[in-house]
Amino acid sequence: MKLFNSLTKTVEEFVPKNKDEVKIYTCGPTVYNFAHIGNLRSYLMEDILVKTLQYNGYNVKRVMNITDVGHLSNDNDEGEDKMLKGAKRENKTVQEIALFYTDAFFNDIKALNIQMPDVIEPATHCIDSFIKVISELIKKGYAYLSGGNVYFDTSKLEKYHIFYNFKQEDLGVAVRESVSEDSNKKNKNDFALWFTNSKFEHQALVWDSPWGIGYPGWHIECSCIAM
Fold this sequence. Notes:
It contains 5 helices and 9 strands. The chain is α/β, with parallel strands linked by helices and about 230 residues long. Mean pLDDT is about 85; it is low at about 175-180. The chain is globular.
């Protein structure tokens, strides 16, 4: 079985880390509205991959998250909070919105005959894990506290943009009018792991942490649940 390797940019023979088992993590939905056809296309492609691996004799374990915490539109703490937007739109709590659209998503998945993941993990169930991993990143020097938020320090990585074919100097801030530079960052490509200082004064879902009351950034969510 051959697959395209996005690291080497070549088609290569697939060799699993473990002989007979393949572990896959895929991003699940942000449950603030119905999934649209573009979302579902991704899940169909993932399903084809899983079933192809199974057809070739592999035991596949697939993990998927459910983003039911505040989810901003980009790394700069800008744009709208999708969960809060959905709750306001329907005059419901964030928790009610999350539950309703989680059920709606899996109804769509069932209708498309997409195989259910082996593990489905809502982000709100993993806050302690997020805090633990962020604390380790700070301890090891890969994250820092600035302006009330915790950021990942991308300068610690030799090749941060290893999967993309562009130069560091070509990356701009405020390429869209809705995006502004975050002055708390050491480097323009750093991203928030935990927010305590956000433009949203009435964030619906917040938790206590060593850095203050706040909520996780979306990068740490997928990293922890994948682990």
